[in-house]
Amino acid sequence: MTTAGRLSRARVPRGGLARDDAPGFSGGVRETAWCAATLTAAAAAGAAALVVAYRRAEWGEPGQFAFFWAGMVLFTLPAAYWGVRRSTAPRLRLAVLAGYACFTYLPKLLRNPSGPLYHDEYAHWGQAHDILLDGRLFQQNSIVRVIGDYPGLHATVSSMAALTGLTVWHAALLVLITAHVLLVLGVAAVAGQLWPDPRIGVAAAFVYSLNSSFLFFDTQLGYESLAIAVLVWALACALRAMRSSRRGVRIGWSAVALLLAVVTVATHHLTAIWLTGILGLIAITCTLRGGELIGVARVAWGLAARTGLITVLWMAAIAPRTSSYLDPYLGRALGQFGGLAGGGSGGRTLFSQSIAPWWERATAYAAPGFALLVMTGAAALWWRRRRTADPLTSAGTAAMLLVGALYFPATLLILTPAGAEGARRSWAFSYLGIAVAAAPLIIALLDRRRRVFAGYLLLTGCALMLVGNNAAGMNPSYRFPGPPVFGSDTRAATPEVLAAAAWLRETQGREIRLVADRYSGLIFGSYGEQQPTTGSATFPTYDLYRAGPGRPISAALLEQLRSWRFEFLVVDRRMAEQVPDIRIYFETNEPIPHDGRPAFTRAQLTKFDTMPWLIKMYDGPHVAIYRFDFGRLGATTRGSVR
């Protein structure tokens, strides 16, 4: 028999169970009824607990964390039980996975059902809204400067809104829920291309759902939320192409994989890079395996090379700003981590001033250790089976072990202020490797004689990872509602700032260039439909605020503002009264002290009232808007600073 023939025979994942395990018709009906009844009751109880948790958080009452995690565990554990049962029918497994995906979107849906809430959501919502209004792709975005170069999500959302008549936000919810369901099913499909047992695919999907990005980050209106679902299906198609024995079928699945790669590249830069890297690792492990996998390795190298070429060409021709956007995060993170390792400064304190309960913080510290234990067991199982397993399964598992291993060094970057954000964003990808590699170990443990003990152990570990990973990945202010908090992306939309943004749009029009802090900029750039800047190393607009009364402001900065046609300055006087909740005033790399005290004085923020080249147009309890009058630069200062 040929090598391709052996791979083809080994590859075919059974659509359901082995015949000996398949239930009869009457048994299948009873099983389906019991499953539907238990999961419906669990979903209702879980959803009620989530609502109670959010209401308690909103009213400032205790117990929000306990109710939230009780609600999640109430559905997750029985769903996992039904999914990995040996006697569960194939269609029922599919229904359980789809139902689980829908339920795990519920926390984010309840968190903000009517409009954007997170930092990046304001940017993506505004971008899709502009495309719907103007019909133009690749427009620059003032909140996240590279997202205009990756219009896949925005084009999809605006098209859905135009076709259905839904608002941009509700069209986005439809797209995101669909992507979330496809992500869960896609992880199971990737695992299904490596192992014939469908329970392994279900186990992989559940393990992947435990990563810190799954509940809140990859459910938000962001380009990764769509792109990561496309990534897993591109991998599933790529593995199907490698499995194929017939040339025509292999070319067809390769073409579909490359088409999905193009969609990924057009949607999100990091996801495209990870897709290229994962395909490359599969190609390397297939090459090292040699023998029967030489032909498969050629297919893998071809897919990896073409995906990489598409990514490079897109970033060079369409999105050249991407490298400069990404470089500072990694460079500063490595520098801070080096300083930390050398005994210097640059670290950050985990859970500093966090309101999370002790048990949630404890699980956050325990989760990486449990993941390491699971990965060690998965690696041992792979090593024991490496000679007897299907060659592509063995090589693919090795690649996934390598992908999953990247989770652990990324976890160390959480100790640095600049690296924390990048570390969190990498976990959604590295956890794919953990999920696919660990799934066979989970099923092997459940198939042991003492499977009851193994089952309880796994369910306990599932609960620990679910709580711990999310506690480490998202601050409580991102996960729970509450009163307005200065310096929190999720609570920036106060009535005062919304009113100021609406006033500017209604009286002065849209797409006006203005200077603002991070939080005012979110609202003015989204709801206000303006083009704010919050400063950068090459355009330090924050120096306007930092200058003391009577001190000169950089002539070069003023010339930049004039030549780039900036028209307004927004000042939030709370910067002199409170410390931002996330310790940022303007942007991540700002040269502003963060010592637990407000970084500005009231005199610094009211000095603009006396500057002749600024005209106050709007004044609220905290927010003031000034118009630049650069023609009066050099005129005598009016009065004195209050």
UniProtKB/TrEMBL annotation:
The entry's keywords: Membrane, Transmembrane, Transmembrane helix
Keyword Transmembrane helix among UniProt keywords: yes
Residue ranges crossing the lipid bilayer per the database entry: 33-54, 66-84, 168-188, 223-242, 249-266, 272-288, 300-319, 362-383, 395-415, 427-446, 453-472
Superkingdom per UniProt: Bacteria
Protein name from the UniProt record: Glycosyltransferase RgtA/B/C/D-like domain-containing protein
UniProt organism field: Actinoplanes missouriensis (strain ATCC 14538 / DSM 43046 / CBS 188.64 / JCM 3121 / NBRC 102363 / NCIMB 12654 / NRRL B-3342 / UNCC 431)
